[in-house]
Each structure stands twice: as structure tokens, then as C-alpha cells.
Specification:
Blueprint: H1 2-7, H2 17-36, H3 43-65, H4 68-71, E1 75-82, E2 85-89, H5 92-107, H6 109-112, H7 121-129, H8 131-158, H9 172-191, E3 196-199, E4 202-205, H10 207-250, H11 257-272
Helix pairs in contact: 9-10, 10-11
Length: about 280
């Protein structure tokens, strides 16, 4: 049985915790069978085995603290683009709650671990002895979420197509610039990988980001189309008003010498009032 405990030195406490429980259960079952055959007073032997088990558990526990943020069960998250903001789904606050729940589950391992005897004191003392080492866990947690924020900052620098202010579109050159920008953005988005990024135990999917950016670009393009159509319609109205006014003035027959003199000024005004379109 000590060999079974000894073998746990090579068993990862984070990834293979079930094996630890299985070994303890196997030893308990063997001792129960021994007791069932009439052998009593095994309490000292059980306590001895618990101490041996606690030594191995404590070593693995301490070794795991520095890499805990990397090897906790994976937490899946989407990077999204909504209302011109890059954000995680679930949001960061919720991710932190999920992470801390998993973190606590591991940190409480010595407190919840069932050994061989009914006395779990030897396991509970593990956390009491390692308070200093546990402080590093908080440090790693802060660093991990800093890295998550840096991922968002990285993608912010990549996204250059922002909201469209159609009031600033006043000439065909403006529309041309924005149509070209939208086309380039679409081409770059098409190259965007739909794979994942990993930050510690967080697995960040980029699929929704790509979908959101494509949707944003379609909306951007549609706004350009609608604003251009509206601008053309307004120019048509201006031209029609100008044509109607000019035609009326040009077809009016001067009847007096005074009107003949004024006709030159009318023609000049028509030329000066020609609307600027496009």
C-alpha cells in the first residue's frame, strides 16, 4: 500500500485528481477487508498511511500553485465586437467568478480530501502551513487577467473601421475614400483566423469576432450606399429646381427696354446660381 501512495508522486494533482481519490479509496477498501477478517486496532496504521499520503499530497499541492492558472480546467470565452466595443462573452466579471470558483476548488483540495482514517487534521494542516505560497496565487490571477485585457488591446489596434458620420460626407471623394476603406477592411477580415487564442486556462475563440466584424462592415457599407443615394437624390432635386427656375427665366420674353436691360443680369445670375453637386 505505501507503494500506491509513493506512485502518486508522478500523478498531477490538477489534471488527475480522480486518481488520488481512487488510490485513497482502494487503500480504505483493503483495510476494511482486513478488518472484516477479524484484524482490529488498525487505527495507528491508518494514521501512518494518512501522514504518508499527506506528505506526497502537500508536495504536489505546492508544486501546482505556480502553474495553477495555466492548468485549471479550460474556460471557454468568445471575443466579440458589439456597439463599437471589443469585449468578452461572458464578460470579464463573470469570467473572474468562474475562474475563482475553479481556483477555490483546487485550493480547498487538502480540506476536502478524504484520507484513510477518519481524522483529516493532517490534510487540513497543509493549507495552514503554506499561507505564504498561497499569496503567489493572487499574483498569478492578477497577471492572468492583465493578459486577457492585453488581448483586447491588441485587437483594438487592428480594428480601424469605426462608426460612420454621414454628415461629413460632402463630396464624391469622401464616399470614394470610405468605400475603399470598407473594401480593404473586408479583405483583411476575410484573412482573420477563426481559430483560438490561449491565455492560461482561458481558451478565446475568434470565430464570433470575425462574424461580428463582417456584420459591422456590411452595415458600414450599407450606410455608405444609403447616404450616397440620399445625396444623389438631394442633388437631383437641387438640379431640377435650378432647371425649372432657369428655364422660366430664360423663356420669359422681355417686352420693355427696361426688361431687355435686366435680361443680361438674369442670365448672369443663372450662371452664378448653378448648384455645386457631387
Amino acid at each position: 500500500m505505501p507503494f500506491q501512495i509513493f506512485s502518486l508522486r508522478e500523478v498531477d494533482l490538477i489534471k488527475e485528481y480522480s486518481k488520488w481519490k481512487d488510490v485513497a479509496k482502494q487503500i480504505r477498501n483493503i483495510l476494511n477487508q482486513v478488518e472484516g477478517k477479524g484484524f482490529k486496532n488498525l487505527q495507528k496504521w491508518k494514521i501512518y498511511l494518512d501522514k504518508e499520503l499527506a506528505l506526497v499530497l502537500e508536495k504536489q499541492y505546492i508544486n501546482s500553485l505556480d502553474s495553477l492558472h495555466l492548468y485549471l480546467p479550460e474556460i471557454y470565452v468568445d471575443l466579440t465586437y458589439r456597439n463599437l466595443n471589443l469585449e468578452y462573452s461572458p464578460p470579464e466579471e463573470q469570467l473572474k467568478n468562474i475562474y475563482e470558483q475553479q481556483l477555490k476548488r483546487f485550493l480547498d483540495t487538502p480540506l476536502s480530501f478524504r484520507g484513510i482514517s477518519d481524522d483529516d487534521t493532517v490534510f487540513k494542516e497543509i493549507t495552514e502551513r503554506n499561507g505564504e505560497a498561497l499569496k503567489n496565487v493572487s499574483k498569478h490571477t492578477n497577471e492572468l487577467f492583465d493578459q486577457l485585457r492585453k488581448v483586447i488591446e491588441h485587437w483594438k489596434s487592428w480594428i480601424q473601421l469605426e462608426s460612420l458620420d454621414i454628415t461629413k460626407l460632402t463630396s464624391w471623394q469622401h464616399w470614394d475614400i470610405h468605400f475603399r476603406a470598407s473594401k480593404t477592411f473586408g479583405q483583411e477580415t476575410a484573412k482573420l483566423s477563426s481559430t483560438e487564442e490561449r491565455v492560461g486556462c482561458f481558451v478565446i475563440s475568434l470565430s464570433r469576432l470575425r462574424s461580428d466584424l463582417e456584420s459591422h462592415n456590411r452595415s458600414y457599407w450599407d450606410q455608405l450606399i444609403y447616404s450616397l443615394k440620399d445625396s444623389i437624390a438631394q442633388d437631383v432635386v437641387k438640379l431640377q429646381d435650378y432647371i425649372n427656375h432657369s428655364t422660366s427665366a430664360l423663356t420669359r420674353q422681355p417686352l420693355t427696354i427696361e426688361e431687355i436691360g435686366e435680361s443680361g443680369a438674369v442670365h448672369k445670375n443663372i450662371l452664378e446660381e448653378a448648384p455645386m453637386v457631387g
